[in-house]
Specification:
Blueprint: E1 4-7, E2 10-13, E3 18-24, E4 34-39, E5 46-51, E6 58-60, E7 68-73, E8 78-83, E9 92-98, E10 110-115
Parallel strand pairs: 2-10
Antiparallel strand pairs: 1-3, 3-8, 4-5, 4-9, 5-6, 7-8, 9-10
Length: 116
């Protein structure tokens, strides 16, 4: 069974940076576009960034474009999210999963808290 394990979250001040990692077990990682999602309290989970199977194509939500960068290393079954110029509204639990309408089991996520 595929497992997704997110890490790298924490608490930072506005304007700071964090780098999230998501390690995936199983062969499905390299055959799928991957995405980073986030869910803030009281909000629905939203897709913030996605990357194609081999990495050349990326898309971002308008709210994070220009500040976040998604990347992947298929040799390590890992996808990354570099987050710069963080804002308090970026506070959420961040998850990775396939960029599809049919998801893998969700991991535990990693909490990102941005203080003003």
């Amino acid at each position: 069974q595929v497992q997704l394990v997110e890490s790298g979250g924490g608490e930072v001040q506005a304007g700071g940076s964090l780098r999230l990692s998501c390690a995936a077990s199983g062969s499905i990682f390299s055959t799928n576009s991957m995405g980073w999602y986030r869910q803030a309290p009281g909000n629905e989970r939203e897709l913030v960034a996605r990357i194609s199977r081999f990495g050349p194509y990326t898309n971002y939500a308008a709210s994070v474009k220009g500040r976040f960068t998604i990347s992947r290393d298929n040799t390590k079954n890992t996808v990354y999210l570099q987050m710069n110029s963080l804002k308090p509204e970026d506070t959420a639990v961040y998850y990775c999963n396939v960029a599809s309408s049919v998801f893998l089991p969700w991991g535990q996520g990693t909490q990102v808290t941005v203080s003003s």
